[in-house]
Every structure is written in C-alpha cells, then in structure tokens.
## 1
Amino acid sequence: MRIPLAALIGLFFTGLFFAMAIFAPLIAPYGMAEVVGDVWEPPSDQFLLGTDSIGRDLLSRIIYGGQTTIFIATAATALSFIIGSVLGFFAAVSGGWVDQSISRFVDLIMSIPTLIFALVVLSVMPTTITILIVLMGLLDSTRVYRLARAVAVDITVMDYVEAARLRGEKIGWIIFRETLPNALSPLVAEIGLRFIFAVLFVSTLSFLGLGVQPPQADWGGIVKENKEGINYGISAALYPAYAIAVLCISINLVADWVLNRTTSLKGGRG
Amino acid sequence: MHPILTLVAQRLALGFLLLFAASILIFVGTAILPGDVAQSILGQSATPEALANLRAELGVDQPAITRYFSWLGGVLQGDLGTALTNGRDIAESLSSRLGNTLFLAFWAALIAVPLAITLGLLAVRYKDRWPDKLISAITLTTISIPEFMIGYLLIFFLSIQLPLLIGGMEFLPDGLRSWLLSNLRFSSVALMNDSMTLIEKIKSITLPIMVLTLVVLAHMMRMTRAAILNVMQSAYIETAELKGLGMLKIIRKHAFPNAIAPIVNVVMLNLAYLVVGVVVVEVVFAYPGMGQYLVDHVSKRDVPVVQACGLIFAAVYIGLNLIADIVSILANPRLRHPK
C-alpha cells in the first residue's frame, strides 16, 4: 500500500502535535503559568517565541495550550461519536416511530446554530472543562447521528441483517456485530472533520472568555491574553493561529486520504 | 391547489413549528438546567435576601410552564423583557445593534456571494487543473483557522505591518507614499455611529467584511463547485452534448435551470452561517452589534438578554434555511411542471 505524500505530511504533523500534547511537561522549557521574564519580550535564545502579556514563556504556553485544546477536542469528539453513532444505528435498526422521534429531535437541535446554543447554555452553567466537553460532545453528536443513521439505513436492508433478524438476534447484536463493522470506514473519515470542528469550537469559546479559564493555557485563550500586543506589532497572539492551521490542515489531509481509500475499496469512482 | 403551493405552505408551517420548538429549547436551556440560576448569577457570596429578591425578579418561584408562556407572550408583542445587569429594555438596546449586525452581514454577503459563485464556476471550468487546485488549497487553509484568528492575522498584517511597509518604501515618490498611507488604512476597530456617512461606515468595517468574506467564501465555493459538477455530470447534459447542441445552449437550456436550485441553496445556507460568524467577528473588531451584545451578557450571566439574542439568532437562521428550502422547491423544474 502506497501512502500519498500529502497524507504522509498530514500523518507526520498530526503525530507530532499529539506527541507534543502527551509529553508537554517534558518538552516545555518552562512551567505553564510560570512568570519568567518581562512583558512581551522578543524571541531570543532564552525564550524561543518570546514572552506573553505577563512575562510567561510563550513557547511553553503554546505547548501546554495544545495539550488542553487537543485533550478537550479529543474527548468531545469521542463522546460525540459514541452518542451519535449508537443513537444513529439504533434509530436505523429500529425504524418506525423510534427513528422518527430521534431524527426530528436532532433536526430541532440543528435548527439552532451550534455556537448560539452553546452560548445560551454557558450563560447558566459554570465553565469547567468537563462541562465544555459534555456540551460540545452532545451538540456535535447530532452531525454524527445523521451520518451514522444514513450509513446504517443502507446496511440494514442487506440480506445478512435480515438473516440475523430472522434467527432472532437481539437489537444489540444487530447494531454491534452486523451494522457497526460495515459502517466503520465512512465514520473513521468523519472523525477527522469532527475533531477539527471541535478544535476550532473550543478555541472560539476560550477566545470569547467562555471556554478554558485562565491561568490554564489553551490556544484560544492565548490569543485573548495577547491580542492587545497586536496593535504594537507584537505577533505573540498569532502563533496559536499557525498551530491550529497546521494541525487542522494535517488532519484534513489524512481524512481526505482515508475517505478516498475507502471509496476506492467500495469500487466507487474515488 | 397547485402542488407547489401545497409544498410551500407545508414548508412555511414547518418553519414556524420549528421556531416555536426552538424557543422552547432556548428557554429550557437557560431555565430548567440543574443549578440555581440566581446563585450562579450572583455568585457564592450572595446574601440570602439578594438571592430571594433576584428569584422573585426572575420569576423562578413560579412553575416553568407559566414562565415560558409569559415570556413567549411578551416576545410575540415585541417585549423582550429587561436586562438584569442594567435594567434597560432589551428590545430598545437590541434594535440599533440588530441593524448594525445586518448592515455588516449585508455588505459581506454582497461581496462574498458573487465572488464565491464566480470562483466556483472557475473551479469547475478548470477542474483538476491549477486554478481548481489553487482554489481548493486556499479553501483548505481558510476552513482550518478559526474566524477570530483570521481577524487578528488581517489586523496584524494589514492595519499594523502594511503602513510600516509602505512607510519604508524609500524608492516611491513622497506624494504617492502619503496617498497610499492615507488611503490604504484599515481600521482595527470598527467604529459605528449615526453621524457617519455611508462611505465612512463601509471604510470602518472593511476588515470585518474581509474576514467574513474569507470565512464563507471557502464553504460557498466548495459547495457551488460540487453542485455544478453534479449537474454537469448528469445524463441529460451528456445527451444534449451528443445531439450536438452548442455549449451556451446547453448551459442556458439544460444546466442553468437545474443548477439554480442547488446554488441558491448553497448561498442561503452560507448566509445562515455568516449570521453566526458575525458573533465572533464583532467581538474581534469591537463592533457594536448583536453578537458582541450577546457575548457580553453571557459572561455577565444576564439570562433574559441571552434568551432574547438566542431567539433572534435562531429565528434568522431558521428563516434563511426556510428560504433556501422554498427557493429550491420553486426553482425545481420537475416540481414546477408536474406530470
């Protein structure tokens, strides 16, 4: 199997970011909230990216921030996939009023823009990391639900599912043993896109001051903390933007490759 | 009744039903969530008297259904309640801000829509050649950066670095340099007041318009490209080609009537997306619109304001999606000429 160059680059950077997130305390030259220098010092040998608005090492902040952002996005994506795909398969396998009522409820949630819905809920909830993950996971599961249901509806009319029904298998068996293995490839490609969405979303919430709370570092929050510097030509707030762009583009490249590979497996036109 | 009218009427009814259900959802989201709203507004150190007062003011002592219907009744009569934080009438504070938000969205749409459709057509025309690839590369980049970061990148490079760059160009004649400096000025704060002329207003929101354009352009281009490719690859276009029709005639008689519905759909969906993108962009540029008002009051935990703004955003979003649906019904040749 030959992996195309674009996908290789994507895989490399995705791996690099995840490794950086996991080993953040080992890589970061300084502590996450440690004040080590003057305000907005320019990049030097001591501080590779300079310092931030209160004199913390910016590179360390970005490494730790990546850890927070990637952790929240990963957890939210996992949650949305568990909820969305189980409900989607359940609706497709059950059919009838179960399918109708879940689908209409999902339509309703999707009729309100995700950001607006999140803001409404966050106006009465404390902004802890757990709540952020649950909220993002629930809101994003609607999109996974639609995909999972659409894929599963095609599968449930297959003969082998019919055979399983006829020999009296329970609904759990039909979902996990008959439907899930056959629906996996399109869902895997979707994971990448949902993860990107989660990264952008949690950064946006933190930037608005409604996500990760200081002194905890995260990419959106770093922009918020350093945005005043931009007016003096200090680019501290821009580094998280580059980090997010590189991460998201890499994952996109990998997801594209997975998607193309699975469509060619199915004999599609690719 | 003509089948098209029935379909449109059904869609309209569905839209209103959806809006009604969304209002319940927004209300439930803020009112019946676990936790004491009064406590979370005032914080842990609040005195019991203050809590009781606020509860009475919010009406939390009444059952949720009663509160919902009195809120909805007020909304239907244009009464959005009063803000907790400053006691001002919400409808009054909102009206000018809603106007500002729509003003910004309007200009962004005016630039983004024709540009996206043109670029989408170009991508189809030069499919798999360099213009198509360049367009997809730019698309990939803009959808990989959050809106607010695009905003700060533009502020950094256009309103801070560009004047420095122009100022440093010694080889340009002084007159040209000062002309460039005074005309290529991008304000990093989008001021807006009634005494400004239209031109001044547009100049002041140049950067926000650019950010919003970049954000929706990518999606709109991608979707336009897909929609047109879908039509161009269908069997009736091939038939038309094979029977020897000219390219223009194929486009006019066969491709265009079938492509118009998906394109309008794409435009409407992206306008709905734009309405949400506005929230973040307004915060970046300190633009006095609805989005900034909403975000401000979310952090102040001012529930009535959040409910009102949430409902208006949801209504605009549902409305635009509804228009998209109706236009695609009206534009579909198969539905317009039933057998």
## 2
Amino acid sequence: MTDHSPYRRIVSKLSRTLDLFRGTIPVLRKEAIHIRRDPMALFVTVLIPIIQMFTIGFAIDTNVRDTRTVLYDGAHTQESRRLIDRFVNSDDFIIVADVESEQALNDEIVAGRASVGIHIPADYSRRLLSGQTASFLVLVDGSDSSVASQSLNVANAIALRESLEKSLPVTAVSRSLPVEARPKILFNPDSRSANFLIPGMLAVLIQIMTVMLTALAIVRERERGTLEQLYMTPVKPLGLMIGKIIPYAIVAYAELSIMLFFMRWVFKIPISGSLTLLLLLVVPFLITMLGLGLLISTRAQSQQEAMQAAFGTMLPSIFLSGYIFPIDTMPLFFRGVSAILPTTYLIEIFRGIILRGAGIDALWKQTLILSIMGLVLITLSALRFRKRTS
Amino acid sequence: MSAINTDQLTVKFGDFTAVDRVSLSVEPGEIYGFLGPNGSGKTTLIKALCGLIKPAAGSGEVLGFDCARDADQIRERVGYMSQNFSLYQDLTVSENIDFYAGIYGLRGEHLRKRKADAIAMTHLDPYLDRRAGRLSGGWKQRLALACAFIHQPGLLFLDEPTAGIDPVARRDLWDLLFQLSGEGVTFFVTTHYMDEAERCGRVGYIYLSRLIANGPPEELKRIPAVSPPGTRRLEIVTNSTSSALAAIKRQPYAISATIFGQSIHLLMDRSISTERVEADLRKEGFESLQTREINPSLEDVFVTLTDSLKEERLD
C-alpha cells in the first residue's frame, strides 16, 4: 500500500510540520509593506539610535582632564610656585582663578566656578626648609565623584613626589625616583571613554529597537481589531509570530551594521576581533529580545502600555548591565540582577571582540547563556501567544 | 447537511455563561439573521462556531465539522467579517485582498481568478490602488467582504456588517448578500437593524445569553407569546406620544403598549372596538388620532419576548 510507504509518511509529517507555520509568508510580506508605507517611522527608528550614538560618543568623556581649579597661594615663595607648576603641568588641573583668602577659595567652589581649590599656607616654605612636615590644603568638590577621585589621586601623587624628592640626598644628580610604576593600558591605550561606551551602547540600542518594534507590531493589530480577524483565519500562531518577527530582526541587523560602520569610521574604534563572529553572536541576543517583545505584546492592551513595558525593561539594562557603571562594584543583589540581564552578556561579547580581539574560546560562556535565555524566552512567549490565540 | 447546527451549545467565561444552551440550525444558502442587545453573546457564539472558544457544554457543527475538534477545517472553509472595519488601513485594496488570499494559500492561476471574481463581485476595480483607510464606510465593507470571500467559503459570518454605514451602502451590501445567497452561499449575519432582520430567511434573537426566538420572521410574529389568543394590535398616531402612552396603559383593556417612533403599538383585548379606544383617548385630551390594526413587527416580537422574560426573572 502506497499509504504506508515511508515516503508518504515523511511527506505527511513534513506538511503537518509546515502547517504549524502557516501564514508566515503572507504576514511577512504584509509587515514589509507596513514598514515601507511608513518611511517616517522607519527613518526615526533607525535615526534615533544613531543620533544617540553620536551624542554619547562625542559628548561623554569620563576621563577627567583640565579640572577647573582655584588657587590661594599664601606663601608666594619659590617652593610654593614649584608646587603650583606641578599641578598645572599634570594636565589634570587648570587654574581659573587666583584668590587671596581662604573664604574666597571656598566661595569659588560653592559657586561652582571651580571643582578644586588649592591652598598653600604662608608657612609652607618655612616648614619645608626646616625639615618639618609642610602641608597644603586641597579642597575637592565631591558632588562629581569621578572628578573628586581623580583630583585626589593626582594631588596625592604630586605630594608624594615632592616629598620623595625632598628626602632623597641632594647629591643624587639624576632626578629619577628609586621605584616607579610604569602602567601600560592594553586595548584602549588612550583610555578613551568612547571605546568603552560605544560597544555597550550598541547592545543597549539594539535592545530598545527590537523589543519595542516587535511589541508594537502585534499590539497595534490588537488595538485595531485586525488580530481578532486573523484569529478567524487558518493562520497559525507560530506563522503569525515568525512572520512578524523576521522583518524587524532584519531592520535591527541593518541598524547594527550601520552603527558598526560609524563606530569604525567616525569614532575610529577598530574591531580587533572577527566581525563575522560579532555578527553571529548577536543572533541569540536578537532572539532573546524579540521573545521579550512578544512577551510584552501578549500582555499589553494598547501601544502605550507596550511602550511603557519596553522602557521598563530598558532601565535595568542601562544601569545594571555594565554599560556605564562597572558591575564589580555593585552590591551583591544588583550583581545578581545584572547576571540575569541578557544585555550584560552581549556587552561582554561586544567589548571582548571589538576592544580585546577575543575569540569564541573566550566568549563561549556568554554565548551559551544568551542562547539558553533566547530559547527559553521565545518558547515561553510562543506558548503564551498560542494560548491567547486559541 | 445543515451549514450550522448547534445542540445546547454553552460557552462560559469563568462563572459567567456567555452563551446558554443555544440550539439552532442554518440551512445551506440561507441568510440567518442573529439579533440581540450588545453583550448578549452574539460575537461569542460566532467565535465558538469558528473554534476560537471551546464550548463548556453541548456541541456545534459547522459545515459538518465539530467546532470543538476541527477548528482548522472550519477556519479553512468559512469567512469572517468583523463588526468594526478591521482591514489594514495603510495597505491598498489590492494588497489587502492579496494578504488574505495568501493566508488561505491561494496561488497562481487560481489566485488570479479568485481575485478577479472578488473584485468583479464587489465592484472594487476603480479603487484597487487606493489605501483601504481612504475608502468610505460602504466601500470598506465591500473590501472586507471581498477579503472574507476570497477563498470561496460556503459560509460567511458577518458580525454587524452594516454598523455605521449609510443607508444606500447598506442596501447595496444586502443586495450583494442576496445575490451570493442565490448562488448557494450561507450567511450568518448579526445586526441591530429590524429592516435587515425582516429580509432574512430566518432570525434568531439572543437575550441574556439565551436564544429566545428562532424562526422565519412571519412565523415569529404568529407565536402565541407575542399575539395571545383574544388580543389584537393597534397602531395609534397621536399629537403627544409619550403622555398618550401613559393614558393608554391606564385603560383596563390594555395588555401592553410601546412607543415606535411617532406611534404607539397597543396590544389589547380583542373584544374592545377601535372606536372605544379613540374615544377614551379623546376624553384624556389627545387629538389628531389615526388608528389602525396591525400585525406585530419583528420589533414587537422581540420587545414582547424580552418583557416576558424580564417578568419571569422577577417572579
């Protein structure tokens, strides 16, 4: 009997499997028309992340240079001037005002005209020459923590160097110190903030795009009543889901490529590792985010609700993923949160490949975690989606 | 084989019974009008028939398929047009049709032929490249019908297809339904318009989740609960309808009275003459009376039936 031939069985099994995806192609085609019909929306969706990239890339520099400094030199001696020169030459400080009283020094900082105040007391040289401990006062505006810590470090270093030079015998002709640390910063030799921030930013921006676009695409249909109409047709939940996801995955991918292009040629951040590997390892992340978008869409009743939910998932990803603030310094609880954020792992992958030239041997763990997350999330949302449909 | 056949079909949402033991059948080629107040279970019944909601009890068959088990086969063979125009506004007429054709798996020559037929049937050809959102209400409904009909279903569910469109477009759409029904297509139409209900081959009236009337309009008008033996119906036109209604209701021979537009429909004791009614009203000071005996309208039928059901519930 032909009915029992293995060929027939395979064909019928295949057609049954294919039937699960019924509607994928028409839905995909329709979604592509939606995107094309609203070029403004597409333009804005693609443009906003690029604008953000340029803003963040050019504007933010967490390296502290040229801190505005106010000076009250009470000594006016050769030694005090040498100390001031050391501050000025460090590149970290720029003297914006000379004042003649401690009160004035304080006022400048309170008024925000300077972040650091240096007060060299009148007895500075006298104490120094008589072998006593000479002190100078460094006032630091603690309201900006990175400026404060950098200023403190430099001030301490200058004081230390001054002390050492004083304590060494004058006969030591060479001005060199006995011990000197020679740090070599790997991978980002100029300590440019952009190199640190932009790879992380790519991850965050892709997340915003994918989650929001997928969630909105489905909620829009629910709002307009077309989803109800679709349920009455032979379209299968999986077909609807995949047909809706693919166009936005392509948009997200294109966006990533554009941003990588700008990163390389405008911000001059070379991709040390393999570009192919990078584009490949994004896939599990994209799946995770599309799943998240779908999950939101099964809950949200209106586009506004969907937007709020999408933004809600954004905030932890911005603050706890290591994008801006280092994870190592977070309290245990927040480290735990960051460990369940997919963004954390994509940022590690991006920084690894772009900055350190890492290969899959160094990044397999992150890839595995992301893949598992993606699989779980997409299955979960597909199940929920199905339940709502039938 | 009936196009639709339900037996004690019941749908529940938690504790709420949305469809309560509904038994009805719709014959092939028939236009079945389904009426009832909003929230009485009309759309829910359609969803259950399409297999979107599982019945809690009873059973339903659509085109010979069990609606609890064979939802896939049913959806393949029926068309559905929802109450609010729900096509894709930013897609053109042609693209909307293509989308639904794609969903039903139409391809190649077959697709071309079906599309041409659907367009010819609805006269949409001048608007093929227009965005659906820019069509007027009547044309939107035609497009929705073309999309619902693209796969040549034997049965079409139309959920308030004429809500919010102008009277001319409404008439045109009904002409189209009659034409298709003549070709053997079955329609299950929900509506709030009595004139549409009068045109249906048979009507059902659902109230508080229960089907309280089911049959051809003429037959429903003769059922004893609507026109009990020994009664007759008068239509009374007067200068002050609402106060006259109160006066009429006070008369000992009045069984029930309802306002219909400018007139009052009075169900009364058959033995009392029309002259007596007119005289009684003049005594109360109402002028310019026109009175004639009428058969109950479908609206009378539904009003009477819901009233008696309300009383039954109060007892």
